[in-house]
Amino acid sequence: MTETVTRTEMIVPEPAEGLAGLLDIDLPPGGRLPPLWHWIYLLDRRKQHDLGPDGHPAHGIPAPPGPGRLRMFAGGRVTTHALLRFGEYATRTTRVLHTTEKLGKSGPLTFVTVRSEIEQDGRLAIADEQDIVYRQPGTALPPPALAIPGTTAVPSTTSVAPVPSTDSVPPGAAGLALHVDPVLLFRFSALTYNAHRIHYDAAYAAQEGYPGLVVHGPLQALMMGELFRRAGELFTGREFTYRLVAPMFGTQTFTVTSTEGISTLALSAQVRDAIGHVTATSGLLP
Description:
Layout: E1 4-10, H1 13-22, E2 70-80, E3 89-104, E4 107-120, E5 123-135, E6 175-180, H2 182-191, H3 202-207, H4 217-230, E7 238-244, E8 252-259, E9 267-272, E10 278-285
Antiparallel strand pairs: 1-3, 2-5, 2-7, 3-4, 4-5, 6-8, 7-10, 8-9, 9-10
Helix pairs in contact: 1-2
């Protein structure tokens, strides 16, 4: 029988106000949680003794496939059936969907896909699948554009025109920018209850082979979603898919830009770091 973890809590505005503050915007009106902002709700708040040396829980969903395995966030898919309403309870049920072992150029890799379903008022509101990759300690970082088993890559282009602002973007605007530094990374870790030390402990990040603090994958995905939302795109009844194709490190300003649609009805976006490397791609599908 597949293990599941269930959590129920009231959807209150305070965490969303915290995320809005981090993004230097006001909480959008309307009494509903903006798309993708559910990542700061219904969190698994583990006891301190449950955490491993890297800050992640040593057991649970997903459980590390072996001692010392290093964790990376690779991407995912979110289908929004309805936006969550403030002032009402919601329930999240989480399980491991599948696990795949692969041998890559960097060594053995374990791909784990975790699925969460969030219900409100007895109806499915959000279906969220996240792809997580584990590598052996001491191995090199996997190459960019990890191929996640069972997923389809979202293409990106090289023609961009970033707009250096996190203010609202009117329809047709080119993009967003976000300045990340240790303070912002720490605040985002706190909002998501993510204790992974690569995001706030530079000395530990170096132990895992990174040249600096790692910018959260979900933060990059969230900003791609924000580009669509602030341009007036609706998420209800649509799937948002995203991939982390290369890690981003250190203090910098990254840009989020729209790209050519992957079909006549779909939208796509990409994240570029300060030197122009694409680190994440996304699509908002019909």
